[in-house]
Amino acid sequence: MNKTQQQKVIISPIGKRDDELIELIGADIESVFGHKTETIPLLDSADFAFDPVRKQYHSTPILEKLAALAPSQAMKVLGMAEDDLFIPILTHVYGEAQLGGRACMVSTYRLKEGLSLSASGDAYQRRVVKEAIHELGHTFNLRHCRDSACIMHYCHTVEDVDRKTGQLCRYCKVLLEDELNIFSKS
Amino acid sequence: MDSTKILIVDDELIMRESLAGWLERDGHEVKKAASGEDALEMLKTVKFDILLVDMKMEGMSGLEVLKRVKESDPEVAVVIITAYGSISTAIDAMKVGAYDYLLKPFDPSELGMLIEKILHFQAQARENLFLKEQYKDRTRYENMIAQAGPMQEVFDLITDVAPTGSTVLITGETGTGKGLAAKAIHTASPRAEGPFVVVNCGAFPEHLLESELFGYQKGAFTDAKTNKKGRLELAHGGTLFLDEIGEISMRMQIDLLRVLEDRIFYRVGGTQPIEADFRVIAATNKNLDEAIRERTFREDLYYRLNVISFTMPPLRDRKDDIPLLAEHFLLRFSQETNRHIDQISREAMDEMMLYEWPGNVRELENAIERAVVVGKTRKIIPQDLPIFHPEHLDATPDNSLMEIEKAHISRILDDNQWNISKASQVLGIDRSTLYSKIKRYGIQRPSGPSGA
To answer: Is residue B151 a part of any domain in this protein?
Structure first.
């Protein structure tokens, strides 16, 4: 296995695949984390994680499956779904990540809220890209950030997502550099 | 302040795990207990800021956990988690001291805002306590009373480092006088005419510490009605004493490192660089090497602070100073209380010389104060001292000082029904020191009636 392969982030669409969005996310991953991406669909659907009572998908087992299915040489894996995600204690989540781990995922389901049909797809795409980078940040051990402009800021609403930039704040940049240094040494 | 310590008490694994995962991503340090009984066991050795307790559990109920926790540690914030339809029990919980309740499943924003509110409240309480302590310390130089030995080495070091202007890191246990040593360095330095500005880094949550240190510009946030100078600016021409440096968050460590490297900083919301000339002295009772290994303290900041460092010796390592200190406190408290007690019996002095003094000089001070108040004759006898227990007289010569300390701490805990706050006050040590001693000695709480 060569070093380039080792350092790739896998983007894994679950169900319907949106190549334009995947390309945008891939470009941002490379610019923020400095790692190239490769698209590999690892799951056909997330039905195994469907909760009939809540009529939502439990994100934690999906992450476990993604981590197990990702090629061993992959650095991280980012799942992309259209389903409404939850974790048992919360009403919903936009995405979930294994803190300092291998897998994370983002859902587009609630990120369409408040956008009219006539609105440009740009606003929606920006939201998804931001939340995808946010979740991937967790796998690099970044926690939620107080700075409302930082991409690691926890967003309660889609308006919060719209307000934050697509960049890490100066603190999170330093913390990410630390993490990447540790990773490259190991 | 460092990350918040949260304990989740829930008998449902899936709930514990999902809540813990979310809170960890939010930057908190999380532990989990599968039952009320387990939670109470964990609370004997670990200090938490917030408890999130499920109301309905097998075995001990959430309400019972709340009651037991509040008995032993009234300061911890307990949030009750309950299902729809159980609001009346949640209200009962509020009556017995729960901070708030959450109906599950809850909206993520509710949880985040509630935690913010609790931390703000706890920070204010800590700051008040710190200000009170600081006020008392203005007239207290007793920690620096010494005749020879290890403290003489500290005095020599202070004399050597004071004129240099170098950054100093002072380590040592609670109550050993790190703040007084910092003040002594300042007083003996060419900056003595300048201000000596103290920041207790452990007393503030991150965002408050940021505006305390750096100040803010009008309009930087909702409450910023005017410009405010931070403590870095106030320390211009003097010394900035960063107490409990081991408690600061990762973000503040990044900022502090930048300030120490460049001596330039910005007020919160400000764009104009501010230059300030100050000397930095930092202090901690934490093992920073360990914190670096655990990645809670930055190595680059550590090297920047650790230009010159020394450790304040614990009282047990300078027992020769005990008679001098004890006489000093006796004089002070007999004058303050107008009681004619002017001698310490040989037996009482023997007790003091044998004792380990986990709370250091502060504990000795409390012991003499108590002895002056309860003493019946002009001479302090062992029975007047809170450290004295008749069983010590029976102690075999094989009993180590550590065993005696363990027995003493156990007894004080029992005497105070395991109320950690009260017991730590009697012992003259802070609560975290008491928790670590309970853990180190493996002291077990006697199992009382369930009360369920």
So the answer is: yes
